[in-house]
Amino acid sequence: MKSVALAIDERTPRGIATGIARLITTGDLAPGDRLPTVRELATDLGVSPATVSHAWQTLAGAGLITSRGRSGSFVRSAPREWLPRRYRDLGGTQEARLDLSRGTPDPELLPALGPALSRVSARADTPSYQQLPDIPELHDLMRSTWPSPVESITVTNGALDAIDRALSTIARFGDRIVVENPTFPPFMDLLEQYGLEPVPVGIDEHGMIPREFATALAAAPTMVVVQPRAHNPTGVSMSRERAQELASLLHRSRMAEHAVVLEDDHSGAISSAPDVTLASWLPERVLHVRSFSKSHGPDLRIGALGGPRALVDRVVARRLLGPGWTSRMMQAILYELLTDADSVAQVEAARDRYAQRQRELAAAVRLAGASLRAGDGINAWLRVDDERSAMVQLAAAGILVAPGTPFQLDEHGDFVRVTVGMVRDEVAAVGAALAAAARA
Fold first, then answer.
1. Model pTM greater than 0.85?
2. SS3 letters for the chain?
3. What is the mean pLDDT of residues 91-102?
């Protein structure tokens, strides 16, 4: 136990937590290791048990340790084995005053479901398993609001379902897939699941960096996976000019002449940026995915996939051998939400509120002496001096954020993802805490 005490330079709750976190980061404390008791460490350090207890709460809030009651506190092992590998470290496992780690929309800004439910039939009457998978009214509405003319559209169980089906029907084991870096961690888990090799391309404030994209295309990829708006984790939305430049590079590439672009527009209805798709220039090579989880509710589990009929039909055929189709009752609920004037107004108000929160928090961080770019949608990407120290310091202030490491395919510096969409008030205080953590 003395070795733990020797690693602690500052005998405050934050100093103790930082020292323990450093031992965990270096591997001197391994997952499953038992920590000294509060009283033992308090005695070794010459501080009160309350001081150590506060440090333990901070470490638990940051997801670094876990308590097993009378058995003591332990360095946390890989939690929640039912989750895909990179999912596991995204959200904190402890309660916090303010949880900005989840990447989920503010429940208070989702449209009310009651009116839509009252207008949907009480019977789920599907007369045939071979019936068309989409209800006609939703299909027609999707087609009329798609970002570019499209041959075929099918409704899916959310964006990831569409992306999973597209990858499984188009890509083959060992294929190379171009992805943004950083990117949404489940994309990497999916590629790993199918034995696909990611080819990372960095992004700037306009989207994928063209020179890196050109280099990636030389690797002869089968697909390109891109988030055109409200990029998770950075909040970047691609400009139309950048989309056209990327489409031109892809069109001219001999090594990637058959590559299919898979676009994940997961936050479309709450994005403040204009609709953009590479299909405006390459309609025969782009599959565009729309999701309504961020705008209308994650538990609706509904999205849409549109693109060339030959590709979409393959996805539809594969789904018929699994889930079959997306519940037509859920499709009817979504249709009501997308056409009811009150629901539409609620989503538009949510989009404006998220944009305001982005601007206000970015200004508060800058005022406190750090830098945070106001993103689009609900997330922002904060550069920090040390990821682990930043998370520990924020946890000590009762704030949880997501670590940046699971989002990155290689070492691109230390970051944390902040779900700005959940910052309802205390903007100045949260901005100051983020700025201090960035320098931790």
1. no
2. CHHHHHCCCCCCHHHHHHHHHHHHHHCCCCCCCECCCHHHHHHHHCCCHHHHHHHHHHHHHCCCEEECHHHCEEECCCCCCCCCHHHCCCCCCCCCCEEECCCCCCHHHCCCCHHHHHCCCCCCCCCCCCCCCCCHHHHHHHHHHCCCCCCEEEEECCHHHHHHHHHHHHCCCCCEEEEEECCCHHHHHHHHHCCCEEEEEEEECCEECHHHHHHHHCCCCCEEEECCCCCCCCCCCCCHHHHHHHHHHHHHCCCCCCCEEEEEECCHHHCCCCCCCHHHCCHHHEEEEEECHHHHCHHHCCEEEEECHHHHHHHHHHHHCCCCCCCHHHHHHHHHHHHCHHHHHHHHHHHHHHHHHHHHHHHHHHHCCCCCCCCCCCEEEEECCCHHHHHHHHHHCCEEEEECHHHCCCCCCCEEEEEHHHCCCCHHHHHHHHHHHHCC
3. 76
